UniProtKB/TrEMBL annotation:
Source organism per UniProt: Coprinellus micaceus
Cullin family profile domain mapped to chain residues: 422-653
Keywords, sorted A to Z: Isopeptide bond, Ubl conjugation
Gene3D superfamilies with a match to the protein in the record: Cullin Repeats, Cullin, Chain C, Domain 2, Winged helix-like DNA-binding domain superfamily/Winged helix DNA-binding domain
Bias (Basic and acidic residues): 699-711
UniProt name for this protein: Cullin-domain-containing protein
Transmembrane annotation, as ranges: none
PROSITE patterns in alphabetical order: CULLIN_1, CULLIN_2
Length: 782
């Protein structure tokens, strides 16, 4: 061949035509024989160069259409032959009573037949493509027809992937998958081979897989899993149901990975979700004897984790799970509340537990002594903490610390804790018990962990101002009576409260600590003062309390302090006045205690009693053994408040250590009772502590008094908040003002909108605010 250049580009000249020697019919006859040999797998005996030249010449002599159509006819005939020999004989017989497994085995033969035909066709078309390469380069573009390979695919679709073959193939695939879903082993490679063929065959509407197999596969999957869901619900408990469902998800993932197309994965998972989970979310999670509550109770973390994994992707799954968790916690919390508010057996227990023990003896009940501090208050808080620990463990280990679930748990705990009318008081009592004796022998880390848990309950309280009042009372008693085990633990608790609620919340509590420190230093100075002045007969230790810090106020009528004690009081007053001017001391003997040696017939005992109890005992000092004092006489001689007087008389005459005799005998103190000194009292202990009732929940009357004081304080806080906001804003609408007041006071308590409205009216009357003409907003009056 020679080349010439036109426009700088080479061009190959075609060879000279041999017109007289070329015959299209003869050439095609020779070539068609060779193609048939190729189809019969006898290509090794043929000359590739010779057959290539036949095809080349037919194109060269403009017989390409004849060649193209002829090849198509031969391919179609061969495909028909293959279909009749390899596929049609494998059609299932469809006899009645065939098992799923037998149908799958028959289908496997059909699928293998298709794969064999496809492999044969692909091999043949590859070889023909090499022979007809020149035809593919010239003719398809000119005639707007597919290449020989494309034509072969068209013919395969038309002669093989046709009805009824296609229907049988699809049915065989579905039967095989159904067999595997039913628990039998199948030949996955046979299914994969057929699926690969379907994926490689394109129609006008997409692949055969997409158009003919996928929809029927998804439909059959939906039918299968609807039935599966009903069967599982009726036969399985919750954990087993979840395991079966998860296994189905894993099986379908494996199926997609090994022999189906990934393009089906999303739709298949949606079917699994829509049939196995979405309709049954609530039914599964609330199954009796096996649902969420039972799994939590039995600590089945693996099953709970599986529940979370399955429910999380479901559109409504997380909502159902959160709702169930809230209901579970709320139900358990209500049970705790009801148990703690039921018949109270030891709310009247003394510090050492002996008062209640005597009460049981008086009633003739042979019961064991309760664990120290095991009051309903302490048990309730401990039960709440145990419940919180249980759900925290589930949240962390099973629910992957999901923040949405954490919010639901917190909401449920906050709800039932604040439904308990005594939750602020009980929380303070729990702290009081632990700081007095509950942390003895524990390491600093263990103490800190206990305090952190207690703060958890405090954090849920909406009425933190009520807690503050109770905590202040309990802290005051611990400090004054020196009952706190660890000063570091006390200050650590104070720091945690400050972090949670701010400095304003703890400022008065810190002032109480400062008073204790200042008083301790003052006592050192007082001892030096006594070295220069006449010392009284009775040694005293005085704590000077700043009135604004401590939760105590002097009684309406001051008690009559015995002369023996009054001498010591006057001595300290002289010392105090010498160092401070303009300050006045008011004595609160109700908060004190005393050590006194008392002589009985058998021997003397060192008693530790309250100051009021000492004042009562001193009345009997100069009486004869058979002399009596009536309740009224004791009351008149001491002027101790009635409630406190009865409590101290109970501790002296009705508890374990009966230093006084009560006439008539009995537990309760009445106005008609009389008392005498018990000269025959004896005990193996030399030093005896006689405790009054303390650290107990308030009775109804005390709680009403406390609530009244809190309501009065809240009025002032609302007033101050409204004025502070209006001073800054000058003008606000009513709803905006109420919302802002609620927001600012939320850290202390949840104010009632009606209460805020009443305080606004009071401020308008006092001319702090004025109502605007629209009657819906206010102005601040400077």
């Amino acid at each position: 061949m020679s080349t010439v250049r036109r426009g700088g580009r080479p061009k190959i000249k075609p060879p000279k035509k041999h017109g007289a020697d070329f015959s299209a019919d003869k050439t095609w006859l020779a070539l068609s024989k060779s193609i048939k040999e190729v189809q019969n797998h006898n290509a090794a005996s043929l000359s590739f160069e010779e057959n290539y030249r036949y095809a080349y010449n037919m194109v060269l002599y403009k017989k390409e259409e004849m060649l193209y159509n002829g090849v198509g006819t031969l391919v179609a005939e061969h495909l028909d032959t293959l279909a009749n020999e390899k596929i049609v004989p494998q059609f299932p017989a469809g006899s009645i009573g065939e098992t799923v497994q037998l149908k799958a085995q028959q289908g496997e033969l059909l699928l293998k037949g298709l794969k064999e035909v496809w492999d044969d066709h692909e091999s043949i078309m590859t070889k023909l493509g090499q022979l007809l390469k020149y035809l593919d380069r010239i003719y398809p573009e000119k005639a707007h027809v597919p290449t020989t390979w494309g034509k072969g695919l068209e013919l395969f679709l038309r002669h093989i992937i046709k009805n009824p073959i296609k229907d049988h193939l699809v049915s065989a695939i579905l039967e095989t998958i159904h067999c595997e879903r039913s628990g039998y082993a199948i030949n996955r490679s046979a299914v994969k081979g057929c699926v690969d063929v379907f994926l490689g065959l394109e129609t006008d509407h997409g692949t055969v897989y997409k158009c003919d197999l996928e929809q029927q596969f998804l439909q059959s999957s939906e039918e299968f899993y609807k039935k599966e869901a009903n069967d599982l619900l009726s036969s399985c408990e919750c954990p087993e149901y979840l395991r079966r469902v998860e296994a189905r998800y894993e099986a379908e993932d494996s199926r997609i990975h090994h022999y189906l197309s990934t393009q089906t994965s999303l739709a298949l998972k949606q079917i699994l979700t829509a049939t196995l989970l979405t309709p049954n979310l609530s039914a599964v999670i609330s199954m009796p004897n096996s649902g969420l509550d039972i799994m939590i109770d039995t600590n089945k973390l693996d099953d709970l984790a599986r529940l979370y994994r399955l429910y999380l992707p479901v559109p409504n799954g997380l909502h159902v799970l959160k709702k169930a968790l809230r209901e579970s916690i709320t139900r358990r919390g209500k049970e705790l509340n009801e148990a703690s508010l039921g018949p109270v057996g030891n709310e009247g227990e003394g510090e050492d537990g002996e008062d209640e023990k005597d009460k049981r003896k008086d009633k003739g009940k042979a019961k064991a002594r309760p664990v120290p501090g095991a009051t309903p208050a302490i048990k309730w808080v401990q039960d709440v903490l145990d419940l919180k620990d249980k759900f925290d463990s589930v949240w962390k280990d099973a629910f992957k610390s999901d923040r949405d679930i954490e919010a639901a748990l917190n909401e449920a705990f906050e709800s039932f804790i604040n439904l308990h009318p005594k939750s602020p008081e009980y929380t303070s009592l729990f702290i009081d018990d632990h700081l007095k004796r509950g942390i003895k022998g524990l390491t600093d880390a263990e103490v800190d962990a206990i305090l952190d848990k207690t703060i958890t309950v405090f954090r849920y309280l909406s009425d933190k101002d009520i807690f503050e009042r109770y905590y202040k009372n309990h802290l005051a008693k611990r400090l004054l009576l020196k009952r706190s085990i660890s000063d570091d633990a006390e200050r650590g608790m104070l720091s945690k409260l400050k972090i949670e609620s701010g400095m304003q919340f703890t400022s008065k509590l810190e002032g109480m600590f400062n008073d204790i420190k200042t008083s301790s230093d003052a006592m050192v100075e007082y001892q030096a003062y006594l070295g220069k002045h006449k010392a009284p007969m009775v040694d005293i230790s005085v704590t000077v309390m700043t009135s604004t810090f401590w939760p105590y106020s002097p009684p309406a009528v001051a008690p009559i302090i015995p002369a023996l004690l009054a001498e010591s009081c006057k001595s300290y007053e002289g010392f105090y006045d010498s160092r401070h001017s303009g300050r006045r001391l008011t004595w609160l003997p109700s908060m004190g205690n005393a050590d006194v040696r008392v002589a009985f017939n058998a021997k003397s005992h060192d008693l530790n009693v309250s100051t009021h109890a000492l004042m009562i005992l001193l009345l009997f000092e100069k009486l004869g053994d058979d002399d009596f004092l009536t309740y009224s006489e004791i009351k008149e001689a001491t002027l101790i408040e009635e409630t406190d007087l009865k409590r101290n008389l109970q501790s002296l005459a009705c508890a374990k250590y009966k230093v006084l005799k009560k006439h008539p005998t009995g537990r309760e103190i009445s106005d008609d009772d009389s008392f005498s000194f018990n000269v025959d009292f004896t005990d193996k202990m030399q030093r005896i502590k006689i405790s009054t009732v303390s650290s107990r929940p308030e009775n109804n009357q005390e709680r009403q008094e406390t609530q009244g004081k809190i309501d009065e304080e809240r009025k002032h806080q609302i007033d101050a908040c409204v004025v502070r906001i209006m001073k800054d804003r000058k003008h606000m609408k009513h709803n905006e003002l109420v919302n802002e007041v609620t927001r600012q006071l939320a850290s202390r308590f949840a104010p009632d909108p009606l209460a805020i409205k009443k305080r606004i009216e009071a401020l308008i009357e006092r001319e702090y605010l004025e109502r605007c003409e629209d009657r819906k907003s206010y102005n601040y009056l400077a």
